[in-house]
Amino acid sequence: MGRALALSLLAALALAACGREEARAPAAAPAPPQRGGAVELREVELTWSAEAVLEAVRQSTVSAQIAGRIVELRFDVGDAVKKGEVIVRIDERAATQAVAASEAQVREAQAALANARAQYERAKQLVAQKFISPAGLDKAEADFKQAQARLTAMLAGAGQAATERGFATIVAPYGGVVLARHVELGEMATPGKPLMTGFDPSTLRAVANVPQAQVGAIQALGRARVEVPAIGRWLEARNIVVMPAADPRTHTTRVRLELAEDVRGAYPGLFARAHFVTGKATRLLAPREAVLRRSELTAVYVLDDKGLPRLRQVRLGSAGDERSIEILAGLKPGERVALEPVKAGMANP
Questions:
Q1: Which of 44, 127, 197, 217 has a 20 to 30 A CA-CA distance from 287?
Q2: Torsion, CA 248, CA 250, CA 255, CA 261, rounded to 10
Q3: Percent of the chain topping pLDDT 90
């Protein structure tokens, strides 16, 4: 009897101690509220997608037109250049000497022409007075015409020399960005040698190779959008140009999609996706940012009535736009999903 009473007292004391420990334990912090987005049925444009690459509409390589040592390089790769700015200078001393020599020859030809003109006028007077024969007049006239022709040739040579001296200063043909520099300071430039390559970032286009079976549908609607993952933007194509030829090896046709001017952050060579519009349909859509991809798992965190996230696997479709993506299975219209799946996963271990 006494032993049973003692055990009962010990059990009561243990329960009381547990109650006091639970009372002293801090309450669990409430889960932070989750930012959610709606899953809804909406009419979207159906698209057919193809891989593409960005290229510059205006891209050119400036080359040397005269021989000479490079004495100045004013810009490097990545620098912005305005139209008409000097980008490279070539030593022009040889060209300047050629101009001086040509100008001296012009002055000599002018003096010879003046003398030939005077001789011709004098010969005409002497023939009239019958002091010389007509043959003498013919020779004076021929000398005069020859002096005229020589002066014309010297003037042309002087103009060519002056033009070549101008080639020593290379200017930007349009405003843009330096893409590559092919020479170093002090190198020898020769006619035709590339100096710099630049492009105009305000005029870009996407280029895609499209199967021949899709060309008709693309031309029928003539609308497309270009997704550039590197800058996280979707760009509307201003114009679609289907090249009038096909590659006989791949049976594809090259399609150009002209983009809006001045796409910030984009440059030639970036990977892109061309989404050609082929029609419209109603699809179940969810926000793109809500989709969580982990290896082979594609899922979203669905918010319940209390706002708590619950992980649910989904199957995605191909329709959608830059904000929404098609859901084929796993969600129902009216449900809400967490827009920050990583944060939702930490709140729901």
A1: 217
A2: -130
A3: 12
CATH of the domain at 49: 2.40.30.170
**31 within some domain:** no
Q: Give the pLDDT score at 62.
A: 92
Long-range contacts of 178-181 (CB under 8 A, 24+ apart): 178/75, 178/76, 178/77, 178/78, 178/79, 178/81, 178/87, 179/59, 179/77, 179/268, 180/77, 181/73, 181/75, 181/76, 181/77
Helices and strands: H and E segment counts in the chain:
5, 22
Contact (Cβ atoms closer than 8 angstroms) between residue 37 and residue 339: yes
Q: Which two structure tokens, joined as six digits, stand for 310?
A: 């619950």
CA distance 11 to 2: 14
Same domain, 123 and 155: yes
Let me know: does 258 contact 207? Beta carbons within 8 Å: no
**CA-based max dimension of the chain:** 174
- CA distances to 41, 62, 138, 178 from 59, in Å: 45, 10, 59, 10
The CA–CA distances, whole Å, from 161 to 85, 90, 242, 267 equal 23, 15, 46, 39
The span from the CA of 269 to the CA of 196, in Å, is: 18
Same domain, 250 and 334: yes
Q: How confident is the model at residue 123 (pLDDT cuts 50, 70, 90)?
A: confident
Render the burial of 300-327: b for 16+ CB within 10 Å, e for the rest: bbbbeeeeebeeeebebeebbbeebbbb
Instruction: Note the pLDDT tens digit of each residue in 53-97.
Output: 999 888 889 999 888 899 989 998 988 999 989 999 988 887 778
CA distance 66 to 192: 8
Quote the domain boundaries for residue 80.
67-90+168-199
Q: Give per-residue pLDDT as tens, 206-217.
A: 999 998 888 888
Minimum mean pLDDT range among 6-15, 151-160, 299-308:
6-15
Query: 């031309």: which residue's tokens?
Result: 219
How many domains does one find in the chain? 3
Q: Which token pair is 89?
A: 């200078």
328 and 208 housed in the same domain: yes
